[in-house]
Amino acid sequence: MQNQESSENTTQQITDENCRNSTSPLRFWLALNRTPGLGSRRINRLLGLVGGNPELLFTHQHPAHKGLKQESVDFLRNPSWASVEADLRWLEGEQRHLITRQDARYPSLLAESEDAPPLLFIQGDPAVLNNPQIAIVGSRNPSASGRETAAEFARFLAGAGLTITSGLAAGIDGAAHQGALKTQTPTIAVTGTGLDRVYPARHRELAHQIANQGALISELPPGTPPIPSNFPRRNRIISGMSLGTLVVEAAQKSGSLITARLATEQGREVFAIPGSIHNPLARGCHALIRQGAKLVETAGDILEELAPLLATELQQAQSPQTEAAGSPRQWDSDYEQLMSALDYDPTPIDQLIQRSGLTADAVSSMLLLLELEGFVSAAPGGRFSRTGKIGTEQH
């Protein structure tokens, strides 16, 4: 038994020595990222003391160690090089990258935050991290209409040139990613685990699609499980990379409200979609609106608010709303039936179903689309009316 332990210790020493002597310039960044007792804010300050060279922090008596917890100092003097080697092995896989704050590919908006992650693990295309982004977040257990709204808003905003960023969670997050994927544009998922894990597990295929069409990112090293305290950390990355955060549905106590608060603290825009006063999932959004978030009825409201912040080419990109305003909308037969059933006075949805002869599911989905495009206006009591926008009905 002692011989076995001696052999394991010798193997560990060889592994540590190999990693310590590795030519990879990233090994000290990875070791620093794994140092216990250090958060992003403290790591960034330490890097400032050593001119951005993390290797200097691993000398035994460096003055920067003063004031650190003993567990941090002990690790800096004797890092777990075996863990660093495991990180380097993960990076050898296809589409896998590591970027530090010194890397030109690091998200420029996120870099403005004092607690920006010192490094990011990426699976996918790092180039998308500096695309203009809008975060879409909300309940993990949304209503059917909330899920549809998230997907439709994501689809329209992605089509207008914004990259959709969210957290890969069940519910609104997943719907937002799926809406963006339908436009064949990039979407970014920030995870609260290492990128060798997918949480929730049922989003494994979705994560694969996102990596192929955009990027999965995490500040957490491979092997990190879904620990609750890591998800608020993830949220600051979601809001920090984005020009604004849209909350679709959220209860009064919701992680989405943490993301919205972080967005405000980071100087970003916050948008919220209102809902029924009887819907508990609308209360978080209503609270945000009372606190100053912009009330959103169409995707055009978001584009209008963000226009001064966007690059020239994105300002000129037409959203579905502006396209509809500039040229007539071509209806297919189902939309023609529904538009014929609509009046300029609010009409109950039951009456629209009866008039159009369409199913309730079809009418609900089509009304949502028409409302987002600006052709239909919703009124209290589940009633809908035409707006002044013009469509071309087929005959």
Task: Reconstruct the topology from this structure.
Elements (H helix, E strand, L loop, with lengths): L1 H19 L6 H7 L6 H10 L20 H8 L3 H11 L4 E5 L7 H4 L7 E6 L8 E5 L6 H16 L3 E4 L5 H10 L5 E4 L13 H10 L1 E4 L11 H12 L2 E4 L7 H11 L3 E4 L10 H8 L3 E2 L3 H8 L5 H5 L3 H7 L2 E2 L2 H9 L5 E2 H8 L3 H14 L2 E4 L3 E4 L4 E2 L3
Parallel strand pairs: 3-4, 3-7, 4-5, 5-6, 7-8, 8-9, 10-14
Antiparallel strand pairs: 1-2, 2-6, 11-13, 12-13
Name a few traits of the molecule.
alpha/beta, Arc Repressor Mutant, subunit A, Rossmann fold, 45% helix, 395 residues, disordered N terminus
Please provide a written account of the structure:
This protein has 395 residues and is α/β, with parallel strands linked by helices. The chain folds into 3 domains: 91 residues, no CATH class; 195 residues, Rossmann fold; 66 residues, Orthogonal Bundle (Arc Repressor Mutant, subunit A). It has a 9-stranded mixed beta sheet with strand order 1-2-6-5-4-3-7-8-9, sandwiched between helices. It has a 3-stranded antiparallel beta sheet with strand order 11-13-12. Strands 10-14 form a two-stranded parallel sheet. A hairpin with a 3-residue loop joins β12 and β13. The termini are far apart.
**Considering DSSP H and I runs of 4 or more, what fraction of the residues is helical?**
40-55%
| Shape label | elongated
Radius of gyration: 25 Å
Q: Could you tell me the CATH topology label of the largest domain.
A: Rossmann fold
| Average pLDDT level | 87
Taken as a percent bin, the fraction of beta residues is 5-15%
Any guess at the CATH architecture of the largest domain? 3-Layer(aba) Sandwich
Question: Which CATH class of the largest domain applies here?
Answer: Alpha Beta
**Number of helices, counting only DSSP H or I runs of 4 residues or more:** 18
